[in-house]
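USER:
Working in pairs, take the chain set out below, taking as long as you need, and write a paragraph about the fold.
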Amino acid sequence: MAGRPPKADKKIREAIYFEPPLLEWLQQRADKQKTTVSVIVNLITEEMIKREQPED
């Protein structure tokens, strides 16, 4: 059944301010991928976190 996700899985809204050239770049990238700036920022951040994790 579709509906709201459990509270533990709920996304958190945060206000973020971007420099105009950075926002323009993010918007262009989001448009190309037919998604939102928020999704692009999350993907980039996830990739950076993976890069920072030490390898075993």
